[in-house]
Design brief:
With 200 residues, the protein is an alpha/beta fold. The protein has a domain of 138 residues: Ribonuclease H-like superfamily/Ribonuclease H (Nucleotidyltransferase, domain 5). It contains seven helices and five strands; from the N terminus they run ββαβααββαααα. A five-stranded mixed beta sheet has the order 3-2-1-4-5. The longest helix is centred in the last third of the chain and has 24 residues.
Length: 200
């Protein structure tokens, strides 16, 4: 059962990212402020929600949220500042775009680069514990999936329409056959990912 609030005094925004472990494409992050008494029976960590339901939830979240926004950091910047900092930056970009300013940030995970002087709480597996983080995970995941489907049109042989840039067997085999393209993260150890898949 997801909890709606970490505390009751301050306005909370949940933050989460999608695409951190991918071999290609940007990392997306979302920030969401939910109203009091928000509830949806399908809402959960995006990894636990079927794709069809994620898109249903996105419509509900965008309609009912007090504020929401999405931030993006591309693969070139990921290579420049590393994926951890890129994930934090994507969250910062989402927070900057919020139309309503929160007073407390609920961050999925165990680390975060402080945003302005705003207090934050890092919550391990927070997307399975708090509604606002779960909602952010749904938005980040669906917006990133949509983006990877667009990139698939340009490079269909990597099968990003289905694997979204993750290190699946089909993706790794395509890299072996066609090499890397401009959307791959060159700082990632892609050869190690290929070898790991070959061992299974």
């Amino acid at each position: 059962m997801l909890r709606l609030r970490f505390q009751k005094e301050l306005i909370e925004a949940g933050c989460d990212e999608a695409g951190r472990g991918c071999l290609a494409g940007p990392v997306f992050a979302a920030a969401v402020i939910l109203p009091d008494k928000f509830y949806h029976r399908l809402l959960n960590d995006s990894k636990q929600v079927p794709e069809e339901n994620r898109y249903k939830l996105r419509k509900v979240i965008e309609k009912k949220a007090i504020a929401f926004a999405v931030g993006v950091v591309d693969n070139d910047e990921i290579d420049s500042i590393n994926i951890l900092n890129a994930s934090f930056k994507a969250m910062h970009l989402a927070l900057e775009k919020l139309q309503h300013e929160p007073q407390l940030l609920l961050i999925d995970g165990n680390r975060f680069n402080r945003y302005r002087e705003m207090p934050h709480e890092c919550i391990i597996e927070g997307d399975a514990k708090y509604s606002a983080i779960a909602a952010a995970s749904i938005l980040a995941k669906t917006y990133r999936d949509d983006f990877m489907r667009q990139l698939h049109q340009e490079f269909p042989h990597y099968c990003w329409y289905t694997n979204k840039g993750y290190a699946t067997k089909e993706h790794c085999r395509a890299i072996e056959q066609f090499g890397l393209c401009k959307y791959h993260r060159k700082s990632f150890d892609i050869k190690a990912a290929q070898l790991e898949l070959e061992l299974f």
